[in-house]
Write a structure and sequence with these properties.
By secondary structure, chain A is an all-alpha fold. Chain A has 9 helices and no strands. Chain B has helices spanning 3-22, 24-58, 61-68, 73-86, 91-103, 108-120, 126-133, 135-159. The chains are: A mainly alpha (189), B mainly alpha (160).
Chain lengths: 189, 160
């Protein structure tokens, strides 16, 4: 994607979001005019949640901005490209948790890593960690759902993601093997 | 002001301080980036808090718990999991939404399924993932992620 193209796409998304907000506001105003007795409950809940978010959101954005600028994609690829085994898995999780942007940023990185010979299990663990164990994300989770919930989900996620990484590596390996056998048979037959 | 708020803001200030000492230019660049993403997420924040307000104000708790509460069983959890997989909102905003449905009677299992599928599975970004990583890996990752998300959710429901 060219930078210009990306910018227009982002602009379009922005306009779309504000438009959506407009619609939402119209809906809520109409609803509250029809049911004025609900207004108190709706506004007080919204207000409460808004305060809880606005008090942490700027900080979360700052942390993400700092890591995105100070740790470049090249650094990530450099560190993940040459490790394997237990160290590789741990590093994949660790780097995945760094607060640096949404999942689609990680796909091209993962693709580069695959071409450079990183194992599939590492890539899957890296992508999953990137998707769901980001540090600021975990902090927001504590804020809204509590530390117990966050830690339990974190531990379970790490365990299952590692299992998933190795399973996918095995499945893809079988497929490659099967295709090779087919090819060989094709050559002989 | 609770402890979490203080910790998050403290970490942000600390990191910012170190960043300015290490490289002023990069630190300013980070702040600009933070401001940009903040502006970008603002409309979504308002949409989510309005939805939460409507949800808690209008939908009676027993309705929510009937669909995604303790007694709703496997189908309720699967339903929430699918909704999470299809939704495309920033992960950060899934937590207040999750907390609001938990408050109004949804089970821990349902809430955990929702957050986990929402963060791990991306239907909207799937074409990009296929392009970058190939059909095999992309489909396997998203498919298995759904299964492990449901497994994680049920284990969490049993423990909490």
């Amino acid at each position: 994607m060219k930078p210009g193209e990306k910018q227009t796409k982002q602009k379009k998304k922005m306009i779309q979001d504000w438009f959506l907000l407009g619609i939402t506001i119209v809906i809520v105003v109409v609803l509250l005019l029809v049911f004025p007795d609900k207004a108190e409950a709706v506004t007080s809940t919204s207000q409460e949640y808004f305060l809880e978010m606005i008090i942490i959101l700027p900080s979360v954005m700052i942390i993400m901005g700092l890591f995105a600028v100070f740790i470049s994609n090249e650094t990530v690829v450099k560190y993940l490209g040459k490790t394997s085994g237990f160290r590789g898995i741990s590093l994949s999780i660790l780097i995945g948790t760094l607060p640096t942007g949404p999942l689609y940023v990680a796909f091209p990185m993962a693709s580069t890593l695959l071409k450079k010979g990183a194992s599939i299990s590492n890539i899957i663990v890296f992508l999953s960690a990137w998707a769901c164990i980001k540090i600021p994300q975990e902090m927001v989770e504590v804020q809204f759902l509590g530390a117990e919930f966050m830690f339990l989900r974190l531990i379970l996620t790490i365990i299952f993601v590692i299992i998933m990484g190795f399973s996918i590596e095995k499945i893809v390996g079988w497929r490659v093997k099967r295709n090779k056998i087919k090819e060989q048979r094709g050559v002989i037959g | 002001m609770n402890v979490t708020t203080i910790i998050i803001n403290g970490i942000a200030l600390g990191c910012l301080f170190i960043a300015f000492i290490k490289d002023r230019k990069k630190a300013i660049q980070s702040l600009k980036m933070a401001l940009k993403s903040f502006i970008k997420i603002i409309p979504m924040v308002f949409i989510i808090i309005i939805i939460i307000g409507l949800l808690l104000g209008f939908v009676p708790p027993n309705q929510i718990s009937r669909f995604v509460g303790e007694q709703s069983g496997v189908s309720g959890v699967l339903l929430v999991g699918v909704v999470g997989a299809l939704m495309h909102i920033p992960a950060l905003l899934s937590f207040p939404l999750a907390s609001s449905i938990l408050e109004s009677g949804a089970s821990v299992t349902a809430v955990a399924a929702f957050i986990t599928t929402l963060t791990m599975i991306g239907m909207i970004t799937l074409p990009l993932e296929i392009k970058e990583l190939g059909r095999n890996i992309a489909l396997l990752r998203n498919g298995l992620s759904f299964i492990i998300a449901i497994a994680i959710a049920f284990i969490m429901g049993m423990i909490l």
